[in-house]
Amino acid sequence: MRSPTRQTENTLTPALRYILPMANRSGGLPLLMLIFITWRDSMRCCAVTADPPEDLAILDPGRLGRLEITWSPPSSLISITKCLLQYQLEYFNTYKNRWETLRTPGRTYSAQFDLSKDVQVRVSTILNGECTNNTVIKSKEYTEVVKKPPSTGIWDTEAKEFMCVYHNMENLECTWTRSLKTPASSLQNLYFWHKSLEQAVECPSYILSDGVRTGCNFTGKPLPEFIDIYFCVNGSSSEGPLKQAFFSMQIQNQVKASAPDKLYLQTSSDRQLEFYWTNPAGRLHVHCLEWEVRHHHVGADGKISLNHIHTKTPSLTLLFSDSNERHCFQVRSRLNSYCVDKSFWSDWSHETCHPVLENVKATLEPELNFVSVYIYIAVAIIVTLVVLLSVWATINMRRAGLEKKVDSLLPKLLTKHFTQGVSKIYSGKKIWTDVTI
Predict the structure, then answer these.
(1) Which of 50, 175, 313, 418 has the fewest beta carbons under 10 Å from its own?
(2) Membrane spanning segments where (predicted)?
(3) Can you say how many angstroms the Cα of residue 273 is from the centroid of all Cα atoms in its chain?
(4) CA 11 → CA 29, 39, 310, 342, 414, distances in Å?
């Protein structure tokens, strides 16, 4: 019976047969045997190859870009039993403008795409297990499908400037503008979809501007928060279909809070000015809000300053040193980054001031008087000029009227007298007695 060492030697290459006796004499035989076993297993592993998946397909179930990706295992690996068969899926996320990669043992996957752009998907095969000696092997090639967007629709007629505003987290409105190349007879439609819906749904109530659809009001039809919602604006016209436009968002990131409606301003005994406010009642929690205060200050010397102050609490305290100073405040609010990714600022609140206008009327009166004097002088000059022009025009008109009257009467008088004289001559009573020159 041969020894294990002799059997191993028969499988060695000539170079290893030369090295083995030397390693045995130097005491390094165990290490060399380990290297050989690892090399032999790696050679056995590399004998297994992985082919890419087959029958890659992209299906559109009518969910505004939510596509189903399917594939089949490579036919060369259907009968494999001692390995875990997985797949590496890569697709280009058109909303984030980057490649997404994931590994899955399944053969289907659902992902969202912008259907107005190319849909790019590729899948590779992954093997790992006893058949590969627990070494992960990936197919050298992948199966790829590129789906082009539909070529239908009049060029450059898609909806522009699409925007959704979630007013006070109670009422959602989405608006858009028409392209300049959109035919006047066009009718645009809005559809939306999210995971809770089987199919896309049309806008429940359109917003009209001069009879044209420019938005959608979702009042009474709330949409879910913290979930991707997909919108599509398409349309038709007498010249043909319009280009489609696709959009995606989560509505909690579109909130516009109402402006603070109750402002309070008071002074304390230690010459502090305390300003605080409240937002209208609603779904917005105070801990999710932040505020910006616009502070307009007029000093006792008449110097004016304007400051914007950010705060995470609905109050502000300032020191004031002179009773002749004037402080005016406005405030607006929005959701902070702890609750949402982004949000819109509310409108500015009404203004509140200290002291009130009646108390500073005396301070402002000199400045107002100067302005009034300038206005009065300007008005007086204008009135004087108008009166002078009117008088001048009246005098000229009267002069012209008198001259015309004299010129018209003189020939009539001469003609009358001359006629009377001639008639008397012919009657034999008197000659030229009534003629006056």
Answers:
(1) 313
(2) 373-395
(3) 38
(4) 16, 13, 79, 68, 158
| Cα→Cα distances 245→131, 162, 170, 253, Å | 49, 9, 26, 21
Q: What is the dihedral of CA 332, 334, 336, 337, to 10 degrees?
A: -130
- Write the CB contacts of 63 (distance below 8 Å, at least 6 apart in sequence): 193, 197, 199, 200, 230
Is residue 311 within 8 A of residue 283, CB to CB? The reply is: no
Most confident among 27-36, 56-65, 369-378 (mean pLDDT) = 56-65
Q: Which of 280, 254, 257 is nearest to 172 (CA)?
A: 254
203-217, 348-362, 408-422: range with lowest mean pLDDT: 408-422
Helix 14-26 vs helix 29-46: crossing angle, to nearest 10: 150
Strand ranges for 65-181 from DSSP E: 66-72, 83-93, 98-104, 108-112, 119-129, 137-138, 143-147, 160-167, 171-177
pLDDT at residue 166, rounded to an integer:
96
Give dist(CA 339, CA 6) in Å, integer. 73
Q: Residues 123-173: pLDDT tens digits?
A: 999 998 888 888 899 999 999 999 998 888 899 999 999 999 999 999 999
Look up the pTM and report it: 0.65
Residue 165's identity, in one-letter code, is V
Q: Is residue 244 a contact partner of residue 234, using CB atoms and an 8 Å limit?
A: yes
**How sure is the predictor about 283, in pLDDT bands with cuts at 50, 70 and 90?**
confident
Neighbours of 24 (CB within 10 A): 13
Local structure of 263: helix, strand or coil: strand
Res 271: pLDDT: 81
Please name which of 358, 363, 372, 371 lies closest in space to residue 302, comparing C-alpha atoms: 363
